[in-house]
Design a protein that fits this description.
10 helices, 480 residues, 21% helix, alpha+beta, PmbA/TldD fold
Length: 480
């Protein structure tokens, strides 16, 4: 039997009809408004965690509600309610309209009719992830705990967490716009502590995406456990990282988080419309090395950052941001695209029904080059090879960033040498792009652990990178 369409799931749940939504939108658009929409959400999240072989927590949370947005030029009014009824919708529409009315910006925003045809189904699961038996979840967590501990006797503590999500959204707008999506999402994370001779270190790994629970059981979850344990053991023997300006090689996959943070946010439409990005007014100009082509693609099947439609009902797309070093475009939501006279890219995203959408990344990565990773390593006499990253900070306006490497090695004489700890990469995003001198043929996307924060909202994202060589990057460390 075919699963129910998201449109009927939402409307039937709350006893609403298409004509009722038309009345609500009519109320929102009564005075000086260019656009209005309703965003419905029905979501459930189930989590389970195991610490040192003992199940510590199992939770299940439900989230439901609706938000009504009214746009008038650059102004937005927004009101939301976790009680969904026609009365509450009408109240939210009047409130949002009032907020938009009382702004000071009078820039005209041309509302356009949108006929939506979603040409992709990126996560066609047979049922809900929440149907996964709790016994199967706990069995997986217990197995991963044993696998991590078996890697080395120095592993003293293991924490494993699993999250399963089933989210139904529906966007209703003018001219009969009614677009829904059913979004599965799973994530597993593993943290290992290793201790030896009074030294304690940590290793982390994990992954996930919009796919069946059974796909975790094909060996990938076990790989995450071994990776976390190995990283903790490697860091036990690591020496303090040297400090100074040096050549840095980034490994494939998760190190793409540096690309995401250092330049990705600066390519979002709102920062450029407000002229606060280092990339403002630079479309068509050289902003990076000719080796760099950067893509944001929300259409990759099963990926954590992928969506059939964004949170404004626009189908996601593959957007070329930088092509052979030249800036080609920005990531757009409906409001910023209209105000900037640019096309929608399907990047209007929000954390939940209680948040306004804004331009956000989906899966952001650099395309592969033609060199082998081995040749890139061999080209470096002395430098740093960064395999994985932990936390970081970025200033969107200037592009300045600081990132800490959670796993890194010295490169000595063209070979990967001893591991180092506490290495920090310091630089400027636009400047770093110009310093990329070699790009490998080994593009990899991360395993599915990325969560992006912006203006207090968090959304799942993906990152990716081939092996790249960056010349003259500042490295902070305490060694020599």
């Amino acid at each position: 039997m075919q699963p129910a369409a998201p449109e009927s799931l939402v409307l039937d749940r709350f006893g609403l009809t298409g004509s009722a939504l038309e009345r609500v939108l009519g109320t929102a658009l009564e005075r000086r408004a260019d656009w209005a929409d309703c965003y419905f959400e029905l979501g459930s999240v189930q989590t389970a965690s195991l610490e040192d072989g003992i199940v510590k927590k199992a939770t299940r949370n439900v989230r439901q509600g609706v938000g009504v947005r009214v746009m008038a030029g650059a102004r937005s009014g927004y009101a939301y309610s976790d009680e969904v009824s026609l009365e509450r919708l009408e109240l939210a529409a009047r409130t949002a309209r009032c907020i938009a009315d009382h702004g000071t910006d009078s820039t005209a925003l041309t509302a356009r009719s949108l006929a939506v045809e979603v040409g992709h189904d990126l996560y066609p699961l047979a049922g809900s992830l929440l149907d996964t038996p709790l016994a199967a979840q706990v069995a997986l967590l217990e197995r991963l705990d044993k696998i991590a501990r078996a890697e080395d006797p120095a592993i003293t503590h293991v924490l494993v967490g699993l999250g399963l999500e089933h989210n139904v959204i529906l966007v209703a707008g003018p001219d009969g716009l009614l677009v829904g999506d059913v979004r599965p999402l799973l994530r597993i994370g593993i943290s290992c502590i290793a201790e030896r001779n009074g030294v304690r270190t940590q290793g982390t790994s994990g992954g996930g995406g919009r796919y069946e629970f059974a796909e975790l059981l094909d060996g990938r979850a076990e790989r995450f456990a071994r990776t976390a344990a190995r990283q903790a053991i490697v860091n036990l023997d690591a020496a303090p990282a040297p400090a100074g300006t040096m050549t840095v090689v980034l490994g494939p996959g998760w190190p793409g988080i540096l690309l995401h943070e250092a330049i990705g946010h600066g390519l979002e439409g709102d920062f450029n419309r407000k002229r606060t990005s280092a990339f403002t007014d630079r479309i068509g100009t050289l902003v990076a090395s000719e080796h760099c082509t950067v893509i944001d693609d929300g259409t990759l099947p099963g990926r954590r950052g992928s969506l059939n439609v964004d949170d404004e009902g626009t189908p996601t797309s593959r957007t070329v941001l930088i092509e052979n070093g030249i800036l080609r475009g920005y990531l757009q939501d409906r409001q910023n695209a209209a105000l900037m006279g640019m096309s929608l890219t399907g990047n209007g995203r929000r954390e939940s029904f209680s948040h306004l959408p804004m331009p956000r990344m989906t899966n952001t990565f650099m395309l592969a080059g033609e060199e082998t990773p081995e040749d890139i390593i061999r080209s470096v006499d002395r430098g740093l090879y960064a395999v994985s990253f932990g936390g970081g900070q970025v200033d969107i306006t200037s592009g300045k960033f600081v990132f800490s490497a959670s796993e890194a090695y010295l490169i000595e004489g063209g070979r990967v040498g001893r591991p180092v700890r506490d290495a920090t990469l310091i630089g400027n995003g636009p400047d770093v792009l110009t310093r990329i001198s070699r790009v490998g043929a080994d593009l990899a996307l991360d395993e599915g652990i990325g969560t992006c924060g912006k203006d207090g909202q968090s959304v799942p994202v993906g990152v990716g990178l081939p092996t790249v060589r960056i010349d003259g990057l500042t490295v902070g460390g305490t060694g020599t």
